[in-house]
């Protein structure tokens, strides 16, 4: 079987899909090496992968980016987005490539599966002349199209003559800016890893030219007539469901392995003491609203606090997660509100009627997969793009800000709870996500890049 490198920036939202794919490739018999930060080492090791640490690339803790990158500030707005690119995405790319090249000198890789925003992995694969695949952890905002405005602009695709001209002018301006600002930086990194200059001119060049695994389905993207052939929609990348060994006949049940620190239950999977309140609400038909701000933008003042205040005293039971911030930071909670640092979506969402979120792509896909409609307050990075896609697909509302007021949140939640069309649409797209194949389909596509010599 093949020796496959799976790379992931050390962010929770990136490690989820890449970790699931690494586990599937291990299950299929491949030797998987996981290149990620120390914080997420055990996630991959527990799946059977070998860990390759970030050494030349500057490692970091996604829960405290300011400790490693003081210049990042609060990470909000255009300034925060630019600092994110300068310090993390481009700032670590050369080190990533050099780490991977050094590991390949010790023992070659047959294939690289790269986090789409881990730019160094693709450069290393190019330098090694081996095939590589990209795993999209966001919508396809960086795949340019003659049918869409460029990423980062606050417009939906034009439908009339004037708006289409607007989009064309914006694409031309974005292409010029990219060639002037990004191409020189990428070519400096290319030179550092022994690659020649390239006329890139568009962010598409940061994806694999052979395989891009797109999380989601076409209905959650804008329609386009020029989608590249290497793009394959694979639904939501989450661990494959396998038969429970406890259900096997006793004679065939293997002896259980001794637990290791990496394989012990994740504390996030422990049901909180108030879980029975949630089950009772669901059983009685009481609405359940979930509030989440993800694991990256965890300033609770942006969304969680105003959403809790907006829904205090409502009929609904409100369950909020703080993304790792201690729940008691919220102070005394209203009678109808429960809080936890983390709750796994696949455990919680079957009991939820509406999810209020800041627009992390992984969380949005999890909600849709469970047929749960959304209220999205996207304010930074790709999250406004996610919010627009949710509204366009009819699975929820876009609040058009990352810091909504209480009244706006309350009205939006009431609208979605009272609008059965949102849930019907979410359930329809849940079926489409399931049909896209998920992790097994993604692994099949990855194995399709292997040569007969390495096997698939």
From TrEMBL:
Residues 318-436 form the Erythromycin biosynthesis protein CIII-like C-terminal domain. It comes from Micromonospora zhanjiangensis. Residues 246-264 have a biased composition (Pro residues). This is Glycosyltransferase. Coiled coil: none annotated. Residues 237-270 are annotated as: Disordered. InterPro entries: EryCIII-like_C (IPR010610), Glycosyltransferase_28 (IPR050426), UDP_glucos_trans (IPR002213).
């Amino acid at each position: 079987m093949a020796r496959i490198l799976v790379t992931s920036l050390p962010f929770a939202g990136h490690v989820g899909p890449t970790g699931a794919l690494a586990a599937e490739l291990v299950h299929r018999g491949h030797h998987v090496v996981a290149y990620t930060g120390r914080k997420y080492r055990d996630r991959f090791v527990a799946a059977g992968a070998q860990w390759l640490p970030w050494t030349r690339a500057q490692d970091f803790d996604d829960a405290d980016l300011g400790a490693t990158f003081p210049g990042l500030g609060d990470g909000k707005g255009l300034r925060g987005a630019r600092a994110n690119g300068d310090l993390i995405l481009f700032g670590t790319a050369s080190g990533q490539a050099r780490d991977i090249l050094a590991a390949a000198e010790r023992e070659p890789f047959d294939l690289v599966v790269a986090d789409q925003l881990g730019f160094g992995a693709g450069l290393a694969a190019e330098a090694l002349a081996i095939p590589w695949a990209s795993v999209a952890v966001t919508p396809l905002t960086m795949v340019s199209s003659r049918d869409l405005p460029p990423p980062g602009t606050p417009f939906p695709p034009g439908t009339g003559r004037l708006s289409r001209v607007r989009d064309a002018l914006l694409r031309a301006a974005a292409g010029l800016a990219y060639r002037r600002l990004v191409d020189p930086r990428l070519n400096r990194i290319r030179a550092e890893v022994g690659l020649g200059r390239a006329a890139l001119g568009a962010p598409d060049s940061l994806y694999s030219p052979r395989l891009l695994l797109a999380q989601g389905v076409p209905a959650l993207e804008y329609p386009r007539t020029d989608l590249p052939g290497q793009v394959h929609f694979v639904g939501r990348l989450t661990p494959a469901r396998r038969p429970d060994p406890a259900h096997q006949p006793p004679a065939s049940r293997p002896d259980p392995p001794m637990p290791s620190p990496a394989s012990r239950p994740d504390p996030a999977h422990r049901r909180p003491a108030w879980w029975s309140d949630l089950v009772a609400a669901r059983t009685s038909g009481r609405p359940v609203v979930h509030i989440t701000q993800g694991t990256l933008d965890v300033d609770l003042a942006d969304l969680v606090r105003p959403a809790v205040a907006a829904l205090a005293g409502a009929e609904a039971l409100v369950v909020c997660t703080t993304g790792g911030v201690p729940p008691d930071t919220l102070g005394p909670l209203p009678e109808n509100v429960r809080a936890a640092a983390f709750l796994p979506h696949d455990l919680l969402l079957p009991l939820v009627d509406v999810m209020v979120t800041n627009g992390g792509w992984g969380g949005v896909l999890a909600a849709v997969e469970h047929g749960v409609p959304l209220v999205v307050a996207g304010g930074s990075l790709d999250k406004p793009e996610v919010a627009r896609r949710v509204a366009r697909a009819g699975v929820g509302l876009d609040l058009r800000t990352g810091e909504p007021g209480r009244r706006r949140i309350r009205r939006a939640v009431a609208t979605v709870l009272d609008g059965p069309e949102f849930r019907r649409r979410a359930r329809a797209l849940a079926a489409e996500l399931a049909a896209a194949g998920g992790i097994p389909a993604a692994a099949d596509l990855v194995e399709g890049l292997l040569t007969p010599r390495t096997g698939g």
